[in-house]
Write a structure and sequence with these properties.
The structure is a single chain. The protein has eleven helices and eight strands. Strand 2, helix 5 and strand 3 form a beta-alpha-beta unit. It is α/β, with parallel strands linked by helices and 273 residues long. The model has no long low-confidence stretch (mean pLDDT 94).
């Protein structure tokens, strides 16, 4: 029987506005819940590594170990390799692959990490089982995902309300689950993990610089990325509605009292020894 493969479509794509966000991510701001178990000699798999900023941070923490970055998109791995090379790291490697059918033997890695991945996959439970399969006994599967329905902002904005409703509809039509954060523990238990530590973390954007950056990348993403193309091609929105959503983002970003918070669910699953 052939191995299962990804059935969902990645909602965001790799437009510059998407990579603008991904390259901002660090182990400190996006994987702090994991860092307490990382040791210098570990072998780590970073699933959905994108441009490799978190991958490189993890590699710097395991100088006697190794970090493998994996992504479905070959093009973004060139940027990931450049990120690692630019930091002088020699303990990284990068490869393409599908989290539903990882091309690694059982019990290979001390830690298997995925940030903002399960919200985009067709079968998150199967993905977690695969991540667990390639984790060594006593090792960890670490997952963090945003929860779009739990995003909150001030001041209120009907335009951002419309944007959120549209985004969740498009993401689900693509086969993903935009409110993945709240489901991570349930998925992990269904996947067979028995030692699951569940928590949460946030990103918050409130300073003038933070608001300009966050609102700008979402305004651009809303009209120019793969998300925009799928929203119109699937009949979820018109070009005019997307432009209106982008303008709502820019209006929010220009507010001195603007505040935006992104809630993430986090799970740390220890594989039985």
């Amino acid at each position: 029987m052939p191995a299962p493969r990804e059935t969902a479509v990645y909602t965001h794509g790799h437009h510059e506005s998407v990579l603008r966000s991904h390259t901002w991510r660090t182990a400190a701001n996006s994987a702090a819940y994991l860092l307490g178990v990382v040791r210098p000699g570990m072998r780590i798999l970073d699933v959905g590594c994108g441009p490799g900023t978190i991958t490189a941070d993890l590699a710097s923490l395991v100088p006697e170990g190794h970090v493998t970055g994996l992504d479905r998109a070959p093009g973004v791995l060139e940027q990931a390799r450049a990120t690692a090379a630019g930091r002088g790291l020699t303990n990284t490697s990068f490869t393409t692959g599908d989290v539903h059918a990882l091309d690694f033997p059982d019990d290979t890695f001390c830690v298997v990490h995925a940030h903002q991945v399960l919200q985009h996959v067709g079968d998150p439970v199967r993905a977690l089982r695969e991540m667990g399969r390639v984790t060594r006994p006593g090792g960890y599967v670490a997952v963090r995902d945003a929860d779009y329905a739990a995003m909150t902002w001030y001041p209120s904005s009907p335009g951002l309300d419309d944007w959120l409703e549209l985004y969740r509809r498009v993401a689900r039509a693509n086969g993903g689950e935009p409110d993945a954060g709240r489901r991570l523990k349930s998925w992990a238990l269904e996947a067979g993990f028995t030692d699951v530590t569940a928590g949460s973390g946030t990103w918050t954007f409130s300073t003038e610089e933070e608001r300009a950056w966050w609102s700008g990348l979402w305004a651009d993403r809303t009209v120019a990325s793969s998300y925009a193309a799928r929203a119109t091609e699937q009949g979820h929105a018109t070009d005019g509605q997307l432009r209106a959503a982008a303008e709502a983002w820019r209006e929010w970003g220009a507010r001195d009292d603007g505040w935006f918070s992104v809630l993430h669910g986090e799970i740390l699953c220890r594989k039985e020894a």
